[in-house]
Specification:
Layout: H1 2-15, E1 22-27, H2 39-46, E2 51-56, H3 68-79, E3 83-89, H4 97-110, E4 115-119, H5 127-142, E5 147-150, E6 166-172, E7 193-197, H6 203-215, E8 220-223, H7 241-249, H8 254-278
Parallel strand pairs: 1-2, 1-8, 2-3, 3-4, 4-5, 5-6, 6-7, 7-8
Helix pairs in contact: 1-8, 2-3, 4-5, 6-7
Length: about 280
């Protein structure tokens, strides 16, 4: 029995997934057939190297009907291992729940998706929290497997984790070096938090931000050199896309480190017992 437990532990440690971070990519670009603009194809090619969740956004929402170009791109991306969530804006609680849920239903009807991205999420207490909790419950009723992302874009209340599976607690082009996440985020695993950075000039500037995100308990990350010149900093992939994919795929799983330390401690204890038995 002891040999079995020891062997099982070693096998577990060797097989444990050591890649933690995911890319949460606002794919606010059309799935063009032009090779020089085929950003969906580039995402699909990278989906086997790192976990990518793409936020599809055909028309500031799902649009009024199915778009076959998106159907083709989404299905190919998911077949390669990627996940897709549908963009819906909430106007910080100003849109009615019926309006929001109608768009959720359209996404579910039009496309094979894995969840919903609620943009312009409030971070205020009280009735607005109840508004998002109700949306969350209704989205889960549509499909219990859907993952719900909420985007206040800044620090928020811990209670909003009852209204979303993942919270975007940073979305900006400046200030990431001095940004301080709320301390309560340390009470939860990294896969509950996402950061989105734009106007990050080059690979040399991108890499330190990847390291900062990993240190800040962030499980979803995206960085781009795109800017707000056309009011949409998410309509291209960054020039350093391949380097970013490699950097994010190399972030180790924090819990696997703890598991490894615990496992090594148990292995050490096991050998100590064996050594003592031989004396």
């Amino acid at each position: 029995m002891k040999k079995f437990a020891f062997s099982f532990l070693v096998g577990l440690l060797l097989s444990f997934n050591t890649h933690a971070a995911n890319i949460l990519l606002p794919a606010y670009f059309y799935p063009s057939s032009n090779p020089s603009l085929s950003f969906w194809d580039e995402m699909t090619a990278a989906a086997g190297q790192v976990s990518i969740t793409a936020i599809m956004n055909p028309n500031s929402g799902p649009g009024s009907s199915v778009n076959s170009d998106y159907t083709t791109a989404v299905d190919a991306f998911r077949a390669a291992g990627g996940k897709v969530v549908g963009y819906v804006h909430t106007s910080y609680g100003a849109r009615t729940q019926a309006e929001v849920l109608l768009e959720v239903a359209s996404y579910a009807s039009f496309y094979n998706i894995d969840g919903i991205f609620l943009d312009e999420m409030s971070n205020q207490p009280g009735g607005l929290l109840a508004y998002y909790q109700s949306l969350y419950s209704n989205i889960k009723s549509t499909n219990p497997g859907y993952r719900v992302f909420g985007n206040p874009g800044t620090n928020t209340l811990e209670s909003y984790l009852t209204a979303a599976d993942v919270l975007v607690t940073f979305e900006n082009q400046t200030g990431y070096g001095t940004f301080t996440p709320d301390t309560w985020t340390n009470n939860h695993t990294a896969d509950h938090f996402a950061h989105l950075l734009y106007n990050v000039s080059d690979e040399a500037a991108m890499l330190p931000n990847v390291a900062l995100a990993a240190d800040r308990n962030v499980g979803y990350l995206y960085i781009t050199n795109d800017t707000r010149v056309d009011e949409n900093p998410w309509d291209t992939l960054p020039d350093y896309w391949n380097a970013e994919v490699s950097a994010i795929s190399a972030i180790p799983e924090p819990s696997s480190g703890l598991l490894l330390l615990s496992g090594l401690g148990l292995i050490g204890f096991h050998f100590q017992k064996l050594k003592g038995a031989r004396v």
